[in-house]
Amino acid sequence: MSQAITAILATVGISGLIGFAVGYALKKILKLAMIVIGLFIGVMFALDYLGIIEVHYDKLLYYANVVVHKMMGFSNAVYSHVVASIPMAAGFIAGLILGFKKGRSAKSYPYEGSYSSSYQDRY
């Protein structure tokens, strides 16, 4: 019985590490993708406003719906695969969440701890 528990723990641990790496990378890639997509949409709206291009919003909405429905079909396939392999999926999902959380910048405010005390000391 201890070999079975060891095998399950090894599977969960390895898949957790892989999930952490994927979550961390995914966070960074999504951040960059959102910046690029936002800039692209901003440029498109500016060009439309200036009359350089003409955007057919009905076609844009149609293709956006097509993409959303395809992504939902993909997520259903991933869900069925995850449910089929629970021990590995549990470690992977836990690692993915931790990696996604760790992907945010650790030092959003470089002087977070000392800023408030030095500010209070000066005033």
Name a few traits of the molecule.
123 residues; mainly alpha; elongated
Can you describe this structure?
- The protein is an all-alpha fold.
- The chain has one domain.
- Helix content is 85%, strand content 0%.
- The longest helix is centred in the N-terminal third of the chain and has 49 residues, at 2-50.
- The protein is elongated and about 70 Å long.
- The mean pLDDT is 78.
Q: Which assembly state applies to the chains in this document?
A: single chain
CA radius of gyration is 23 Å
Rough outline: elongated
Low-pLDDT residue spans: none
| Separation, N- and C-terminal Cα atoms | 66 Å
Largest sheet: number of strands, sense, barrel closure: none
Helix content: over 70%
> How many structural domains does the protein architecture include?
1
Number of helices: 4
Order of helices and strands: HHHH
Total strand count, please?
A: 0
